[in-house]
Structures are given as C-alpha cells and as structure tokens.
Design goal:
The chain has helices at about 10-15, 25-30, 40-55, 60-70, 75-85, 85-95, 175-180, 215-220, 255-270, 275-280, 300-305, 310-320, 335-355, 375-390, 400-405, 420-435, and strands spanning about 110-115, 125-135, 140-145, 165, 185-190, 200, 230-235, 240-250, 285-290. The chain has about 425 residues and is α+β, with helices and mostly antiparallel strands.
Length: about 425
C-alpha cells in the first residue's frame, strides 16, 4: 500500500534554523537593520541577502522576488539595504565557525590557501578569499575576505597550540613560521629554497650557531644517492631562529620531466631563463616542517602534505557548484564584499546541511571513500534554494506590483518594436480572413 505524499514545508524559517539564534540581535548591533520599513524584520533582510548572494539574482530581480513574498520594494531600496550588511555577514560567519579558545584533546590538522576572484572585465584580482579547512572533519575552520592587496599569510588565521598547518609555496614566510612555532603551532610547507634561509644543523645542536653555513639545497640533493632525504636544519629570520627538518623525495622521471617543462614555460612567459639548479629542483618534492621526527617521520610528513590538495577541491566546489566565481560587481564596490560574504554564508549552510544528511560523514580520509561531497552538495543546494525562494508563499495579488518593479528604466535608446507599417499589414490580413 502506497503512503500518501507528505506536504513539504520549504520556508525561509528552515534556513534561519541553520544560523546562530542571535542573528537578529547581531543585525541591529552591526547596524545592518536599523528600522522596519519595507523590510520589517532581520529575517526579511537576510532573505534579501540570500536572494542576491545565494541565488545570484540581480538587484531588480531580488526586488521582484521579495515583492511577491511581502510588499513592493524597489531595486534602489534593495541596494541601500545590502550595502550596510558587510560587517553583519562577517560577524555571522565568524560566529558559525569553530571557536579556537577551547582545549584540544589531540592534534588538529588544518589546510590553508587563498583564491582570487575577478569581477566583469577585470584585468587582475579584485578580491581574495582566504580559507582554512579542517582536514579531519572536512569542514571550514576559518575564512576571510580581502581586497587584491590582502596577501597570503598564516598570521591572519586563529591558531592554538597543537595545530598542524599544511600550506603551499606561497607561505614560505620564515618570521611567521617561527612565531607560530613559539606558540606551539607546527607548519608543514612546500619548500621554496630561495625564500627560506635554511642553515645546516647537526642532530645534537639545540642552539643556532651564528657561524653556520647557509644550506645549498641543490648541492645537498645532488649528493644524495637515495630517492628520499632527511636533513636537520635551522630556519633563520631577522628576529628569530628555530629548528626544522627538510624532507625531499625524488619524482618519477616522467613526472620530473613534466615539472621541468612547466618550469621552462613559466620562465619563458616572464622573459627569463631558468637556472640549472631550478630545473634540477623541479624534479623533487621538498617539504620543510617544524614537526619533530619523533612525532611524524619523513614519509608520513610527505604523505600528509599530499592531502593539502583537499583545500583546492574545496575551492573548486565553491566555484563550480556554488558559483563563488560569478562575482558581478566591480572592484572596490561596496556590494562586492557583501556578495562574497553572503555567498560564503550560503555555502556554509549548505555544507552543514549536507553533513547532517550524511550521518556517517562525507569525504572521510581515513578509509576508502564512497561518498564525496560533489553530488550531495548539488542536491542539498536545491533544498536550500527552495527555502530562500519560498515560491509556495508567493502572493498572487502581488504580481502586478512585481511586474511594475521589473520594468525597464527609461533609456536613451528606445526598445525595439515592430514597425507600424508591418502591424497594419498583419491586422489587414487578419481582417480579410475574418471577413
């Protein structure tokens, strides 16, 4: 016997339940919601934010959608309200992300990277999104949005003792790494030898020797007859120094040759010629870490670094599935950061909803994977989009007001119409048939 289908309640209230309960208080605190007029509650304001940022509706379309839900509102009013939402959305994101001032029961593995966003017609980067991903939980740990001048640095993230951070070549920043090491935060970073002043260190040494010789990484690897190497080193910065370890693994010949071709292509594009040392080092994977070998040995460190690719996949999901790369605003627009932070809030709600649906967890890295986030996020997005659009509660009596909101503005160039002579001919033909 078939069960009767149950009614599905897809309302925006379901979206609000995914947010901190103090979201309305925060809207007033950060002056995003000052007084009730067309948007009578912070919930109305947040729904407008999600229509614009999550569903990527244009300002006028957002006004039309809200008109069908509540009352007539103009595109200009929508724009003015959205402009004030940046600090509120930033605080909401921060509130929803993990608190870092709680005691750790073990390690916490975190991957960090940044990605650039460009608006229409941009010649370069307009904004950067900086992301820290919890590798064990596969959830967002921290996120930040900056302009094009916001460089990649580990100093912008909240850390605590016991964290192990995986980063790529862009984070070869000696002083920052040593500062984190002093706080009990370990780093595993893909090595750029020219950016990291490494000095030879004996296994027994526990104090930096000012007479130490800077390590020639290329020469050390050329002298290596094995496919892997482990070297104790000192990392030196203007204001500090600290111990570390260099691990390197030789790439297979075909992979190494492909890496050298990319190296030559990149250098040629910049009008340079790569040195022999640069081409030689392209055939190795080199990692520097402050994690002691008693904690993680060389093969484990190298294997763990390969997991850094997960943050690249996270950005790819944000861009290809959730449309983070469809930025419509120009550089320095006040709506630019609002749209990005709203999109990230939208993505965070979808991610948490997906995690809740997959009770066994999605994308686990400690066993063979059968469920990855890709298809699940597509389905969950449809669920969340239904909450935001809330089409079942559109008011039929508001369609005239909606169409009035959607009308084109007066413009210099007249919209195309069928010439009057053609219309006369067509009407004449109709009259003849009817006669």
């Amino acid at each position: 016997m078939l069960r009767a289908p149950q009614p599905v309640d897809l309302t925006f209230e379901a979206f609000l339940k995914e947010l901190p309960p103090e979201y309305a208080t925060m809207a007033r605190e950060f002056k995003a919601f000052a007084r009730p007029r067309k948007l009578k509650t912070p919930a109305h304001l947040l729904q407008v934010v999600m229509l614009y940022c999550g569903l990527d509706q244009a300002l006028r379309t957002t006004a039309g959608s809200f008109t069908l839900l509540e009352e007539r509102i103009t595109e200009t009013a929508i724009r003015q309200r959205l402009r004030a939402c940046g600090p509120w959305l930033k605080a909401l994101l921060h509130t929803m992300l993990p608190v870092t001032q709680t005691p750790l029961t073990g390690w916490r593995l975190l991957i960090v990277d940044g990605s650039s966003l460009q608006g229409p017609g941009a010649q370069g980067t307009d904004y950067r999104v900086h992301l820290a991903l919890d590798l064990t939980q596969m959830t967002v740990h921290a996120v930040d949005v900056t302009g094009a001048d916001g460089g990649e640095t580990l100093a912008r993230y909240p850390w605590q003792a016991g964290d192990i951070v995986l980063v790529d070549r862009g984070y070869n920043q000696p002083q920052v790494i040593l500062d984190l090491f002093a706080r009990g935060v370990e780093v595993i970073v893909r090595l750029n030898p020219t950016a990291m002043p490494l000095f030879a260190r004996s296994w027994e040494a526990d104090v930096f020797d000012p007479a130490a010789v800077r390590l020639d990484v290329s020469a050390s690897l050329r002298a290596c007859t094995d496919d892997t190497i482990r070297l104790p080193v000192w990392l030196r910065a203007p204001e500090a120094s600290g111990p570390g370890w260099l691990y390197a693994a030789r790439l297979p010949p075909d992979v190494a040759e492909a890496a050298r071709r990319r190296c030559r292509t990149t250098a040629q594009r910049k009008g340079r010629t790569p040195s022999d040392a640069t081409l030689f080092l392209a055939g190795w994977v080199m990692v520097f870490t402050t994690v002691a070998p008693e904690t993680l040995d060389g093969p484990t460190v190298l294997a763990l670094y390969r997991c850094r690719w997960q943050v690249e996949l996270a950005f790819k999901r944000l861009k290809s599935l959730l449309d983070l790369d469809t930025l419509r605003t120009q550089q320095n627009s006040r709506l630019g950061e609002v749209w990005i932070r709203g999109k990230l809030l939208y993505a965070l709600v979808i991610e948490r909803r997906a995690q809740r649906h997959a009770t066994g967890g999605i994308d686990p890295l400690d066993r063979p994977r059968r469920l990855t986030p890709w298809r699940l996020l597509v389905i969950v997005r449809q669920e969340v989009d239904g909450w935001i659009l809330d089409a079942q509660h559109w008011c039929a009596e508001q369609w005239d007001a909606c169409l009035d909101v959607l009308k084109e503005r007066p413009r210099r160039r007249r919209l195309q119409t069928v010439p009057a002579r053609v219309m006369q001919m067509m009407n004449s033909q109709v009259s003849q048939r009817c006669g």
